[in-house]
């Protein structure tokens, strides 16, 4: 009878212990229990899982992954003898979920990573060399160089590849341009704003013509991405923080635009930022390929058809998603097959480009399909062609593993307060440097 | 089911062992067994992490590194010279002071009114629950409510103030250092004054009524009995409120982080936000985060001890136990 008491006590205790452990350590036994966690904004999502033996685990932050795998990959290969377990984690939680397990046995087999943080994983040295897989190595010869460059470690090991390219453009309202500026075509618009001086002058003309009721751009978010990508050096070179001249110019341009009332000064991706897409207050937005599909189109239903796109003062790119395979994966061959097909298969690329309008990373496919588009949203303009033109100018070498954090610190501590006139330029740069030094104590700042 | 098995155990035990004494002695060990879960949890989730943190503060563990190398007091030295950390200590102090003093004064007044027999307020229960209510809402929701309330340029508060002609153009509260600090302090104040009121009220109710009656007979005014009887006898409970609030205040994280992430210009970047950012952002400097945590622990202990000591001199009262 003593045993019964022991048993009861043990059962209670183990139940309590298990409840507290969550799914942290149980991953390898195949934890597929759905645990719900919350993001900072209180949005609930399912904790990512790993499926154990014989399951290919894919962790992603974009819902495109599930579409590509379920609707395309599994259609193409219906007879796989393993299961693919896709865990979708919101972007802002992705790193906090992945970092603690990355490099351990609990890590997923395939990870998706966004431009802002892809380099962190690329440079971690914990992704496998993709060139060892025949299919990927030969397939990637058709991939645009900058895509491969970003997926390559400093020592030259190619560890991540992407199915897309994400050149950016300046989207503007043709109706407002003809009404207030007398600009009748995208070519004329491009001529007017081909450099930042022209951009500012056009903005001033616009203000004069409309008595300040129409702004050239919505926010500093329309300036910083083009400027970041036109830097000559990335944020960090030889473990030293580099503040490129372009960044000082960005500070000045943003301040000028706020001071002179040329910019609406909404918060990037805030309520007013999106609301103005449907109004007549803002002339244009700097957005990349996906920005047009996911941000502009859904928020501009009343102004659809009036938009046009041009390169703008500088060619740039923003965002993009890369895929890599972890070294701890026990299904590297299977993972490689998935990465190969999604990032290099010509057939898939063509279908994907045709069905979604995404600008893909396969040079041949882009050349082949670029002529066939007519975007009604842009009044019949061929956006694919225009984006394709911008790809060769993209420089992937300025992307570093520090980008997300350092760009974020620059936006918060230098660009925003300085453009609003809250601090002097020196104070802004000092605050920015202090933050960077704290986030990365091993970097040489100054 | 448990009861039936227990009775059988008992009857068997009795037949086997005639002496009741032995059995009673045997039962004592179950006490250890039932407190074991707590200690196991404590050891795994409190004791071990605490010492592991202290260990990490003497190492260089950061980023993807999996092995920690011992570096002596280097982290402490760097932390001491770290301007941002100093700023975060300053921010934390400011936020706590600005929230605590109004809070304890208002809580004292409310507790006094609620317990005053002459005023004999109606529906005190209702008001008490109303005042306590903000404490029940989760910090995330509170932060969300306040960020939309104060949002710029078309937040409700800006609209109302413009409507009433108080301001001519909307104010961007979260771009102002003072504004953001005040809002954070106010939220802390608003969330906790109900709790403090209830604790203080319990303290006042714990004071022997006879003292007040005797004072009244001697002709003391309300104010006199408050300052001469209530206040001195409330010292222990005030000490309790002060220390718990201080510990909570030093660890303030959720509200400022959710409101602005520490901005603008790092004005509400508290020690906990500093620690969080060090541990999970940028270079993920676990060593620096651990060092700052250890510093926070030391700081909390020293301040608490200091407060305890400064109160003890004026003789510790028995009512501490009675009230708590």
UniProtKB/TrEMBL annotation, chain A:
Pfam families for the chain: SBP_bac_8
InterPro entries attached to this UniProt entry: Bact_solute-bd_prot1, SBP
Designated name of the protein: ABC-type glycerol-3-phosphate transport system, substrate-binding protein
Source lineage: Bacteria, Bacillati, Bacillota, Bacilli, Lactobacillales
Keyword flag Lipoprotein: yes
Keyword field: Cell membrane, Lipoprotein, Membrane, Palmitate, Signal
Top-level taxon: Bacteria
Membrane-spanning residues: none
Signal peptide range: 1-19
Cross-referenced Gene3D superfamilies: Periplasmic binding protein-like II (3.40.190.10)
UniProtKB/TrEMBL annotation, chain B:
Subcellular localization(s) per the UniProt record: Cell membrane
Similarity remark: Belongs to the binding-protein-dependent transport system permease family.
The organism's place on the tree of life at top rank: Bacteria
Protein name: Cytochrome c biogenesis protein
Pfam families (alphabetical): BPD_transp_1
PANTHER family, alphabetized: ABC TRANSPORTER PERMEASE PROTEIN, INNER MEMBRANE ABC TRANSPORTER PERMEASE PROTEIN YCJO
Membrane topology qualifier: Multi-pass membrane protein
Transmembrane feature ranges: 30-51, 94-114, 135-153, 173-193, 237-259, 288-308
Assigned keywords, A-Z: Cell membrane, Membrane, Sugar transport, Transmembrane, Transmembrane helix, Transport
GO-annotated biological processes: transmembrane transport
GO cellular component: a single term: plasma membrane
Primary location recorded for the protein, binned into one broad class: membrane
SUPFAM superfamilies named among the record's database cross-references: MetI-like
Keyword field contains Repressor: no
Domain ABC transmembrane type-1 span(s) in chain numbering: 89-307
């Amino acid at each position: 009878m003593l045993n019964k008491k022991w048993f009861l006590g043990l059962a209670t205790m183990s139940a309590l212990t298990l409840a507290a452990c969550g799914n942290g350590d149980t991953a390898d036994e195949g934890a597929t229990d759905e645990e719900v966690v919350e993001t900072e904004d209180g949005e609930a999502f399912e904790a990512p899982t790993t499926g154990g033996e014989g399951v290919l685990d894919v962790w992603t932050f974009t819902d495109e992954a599930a579409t590509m795998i379920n609707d395309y990959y599994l259609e193409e290969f219906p007879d796989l003898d393993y299961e693919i377990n896709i865990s979708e984690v919101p972007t802002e939680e992705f790193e906090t979920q992945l970092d603690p397990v990355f490099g351990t046995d609990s890590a997923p087999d395939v990870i998706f990573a966004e431009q802002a943080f892809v380099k962190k994983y690329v440079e971690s040295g914990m992704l496998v060399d993709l060139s060892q897989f025949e299919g990927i190595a030969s397939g990637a010869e058709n991939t645009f160089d900058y895509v491969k460059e970003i997926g390559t470690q400093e020592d030259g090991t190619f560890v991540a590849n992407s199915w897309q390219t994400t050149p950016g453009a300046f989207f503007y309202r043709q109706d407002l341009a003809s009404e207030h500026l007398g600009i009748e075509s995208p070519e004329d618009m491009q001529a007017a704003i081909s450099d930042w001086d022209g951009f500012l002058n056009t903005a001033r003309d616009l203000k004069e013509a409309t008595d300040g009721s129409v702004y050239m751009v919505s926010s500093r978010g329309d300036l910083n991405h083009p400027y970041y990508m036109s830097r000559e050096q990335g944020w960090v070179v030889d473990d030293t923080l580099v503040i490129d001249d372009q960044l000082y110019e960005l500070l000045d341009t943003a301040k000028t635009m706020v001071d002179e009332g040329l910019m609406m000064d909404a918060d990037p991706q805030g309520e007013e930022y999106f609301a103005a897409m449907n109004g007549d207050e803002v002339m244009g937005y700097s957005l990349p390929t996906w920005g047009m599909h996911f941000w502009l189109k859904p928020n501009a239903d009343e102004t659809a058809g009036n938009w046009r796109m041009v390169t703008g003062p500088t060619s740039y790119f923003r965002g993009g998603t890369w895929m890599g395979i972890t070294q701890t994966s026990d299904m590297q061959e299977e993972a490689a097959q998935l990465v190969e097909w999604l990032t290099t298969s010509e057939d898939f690329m063509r279908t994907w480009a045709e069905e979604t309008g995404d600008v893909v990373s396969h040079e041949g496919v882009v050349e082949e399909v670029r002529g066939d588009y007519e975007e009604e949203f842009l009044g019949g303009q061929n956006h694919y062609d225009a984006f394709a033109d911008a790809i060769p100018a993209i420089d992937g070498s300025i992307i570093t593993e520090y980008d997300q954090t350092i760009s974020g610190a620059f936006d918060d501590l230098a660009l925003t307060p300085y453009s609003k006139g809250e601090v002097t330029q020196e104070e802004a740069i000092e605050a920015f440097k202090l933050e960077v030094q704290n986030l990365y104590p091993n970097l040489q700042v100054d | 089911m448990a009861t039936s098995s227990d009775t059988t155990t008992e009857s068997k035990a009795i037949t086997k062992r005639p002496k009741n004494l032995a059995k009673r002695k045997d039962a004592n060990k179950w006490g250890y067994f039932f407190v074991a879960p707590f200690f196991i949890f404590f050891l795994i989730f409190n004791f071990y992490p605490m010492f592991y943190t202290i260990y990490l503060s003497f190492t260089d563990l950061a980023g993807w590194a999996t092995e920690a190398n011992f570096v002596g007091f280097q982290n402490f030295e760097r932390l001491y010279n770290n301007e941002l950390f100093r700023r975060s200590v300053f921010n934390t102090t400011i936020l706590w002071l600005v929230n605590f003093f109004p809070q304890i004064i208002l809580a004292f007044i409310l507790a006094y009114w609620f317990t005053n027999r002459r005023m004999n307020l109606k529906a005190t229960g209702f008001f008490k629950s109303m005042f306590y209510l903000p404490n029940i809402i989760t910090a995330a929701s509170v932060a969300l409510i306040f960020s939309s309330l104060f949002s710029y340029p078309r937040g409700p508060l800006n609209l109302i103030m413009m409507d009433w002609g108080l301001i001519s153009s909307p104010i961007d509260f979260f771009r102002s250092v003072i504004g953001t600090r005040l809002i954070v302090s106010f939220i802390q104040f608003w969330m906790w004054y109900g709790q403090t009121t209830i604790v203080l009220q319990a303290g006042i109710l714990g004071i022997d009524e006879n003292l007040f009656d005797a004072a009244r007979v001697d002709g003391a005014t309300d104010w006199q009995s408050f300052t001469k009887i209530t206040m001195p006898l409330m010292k222990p409970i005030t000490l309790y409120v002060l220390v718990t609030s201080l510990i909570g205040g030093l660890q303030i994280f959720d509200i400022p982080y959710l409101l602005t992430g520490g901005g603008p210009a790092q004005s509400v970047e508290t020690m906990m936000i500093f620690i969080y950012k060090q541990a999970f952002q940028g270079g993920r400097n676990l060593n620096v985060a651990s060092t700052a945590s250890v510093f926070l622990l030391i700081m909390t202990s020293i301040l608490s001890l200091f407060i305890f000591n400064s109160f003890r001199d004026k003789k510790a009262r028995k009512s501490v136990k009675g009230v708590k």
